[in-house]
Amino acid sequence: LKRTGKIEVIPLSTYQGRYSSSTNGCTVISPLVVSNHLRADGAVANSAINDVIDKQAPPILGAIRRKLGLPNGSLIIPSDVHDYMVDHKILFQDKFVGACGGNIIDPDHLKNFVDLLVHGEDIAIAKKPPADDKKKTGAALFFREHVVSIVKIPTSSGNWYDLVDSLPTAIDPKNRQRVASRTRCKGRESLETCLQWYACSKFSESDFSYIDRNQWSDAMCDFDPRVFQGFVWSE
Q1: 159, 133 in Cβ contact below 8 A?
Q2: Cα–Cα distances in angstroms (integers) from residue 77 to residues 18, 131, 136, 207, in the given order
């Protein structure tokens, strides 16, 4: 898909942890990227994502950690972040499309999440075809103690989906340093392939051994390396 141009990896100019104040900040960075995207005229700019990582996220991380009595650099669960962002009108509850989760390598589970992102509404609840799949959406995807954002970009040639990872996962061609990445997926099929690759890239050898030995069980999902949660908003 990369060779055919259907997936393109775009390096950004910074990364989570470049400054200590953004360390372990993905639970804040990812929904902030979504918020910036939904407010932007068109797609969120690379410069805006860099600003989220270096400038917007650190004060919010500090405020949430102080409220919860957590030390600097500690992990924060997504629900605490989303409550803060709704309270401070960074994200809006009436624009919340829904949340879903399950086994990220199960095509049916992944389809439920991608459907929310593609359509900007829960079509199972609406019980009707989506009125408009050209509106912008954005999601925070929580998997393996890390959160990435996915933003939907309607274009004249179809919808594109950018997976933004604040960890240093790309190479800056200017200085060969590792930086955050924006992986552009041109179409739903490309996005689903990218998400499957992303999930498998996060599994360790012990994770693969667990998966080989154990079928998925909702009752055991808290201990299963395949479990994910996705939270989706629309404009």
Answers
A1: yes
A2: 21, 33, 25, 22
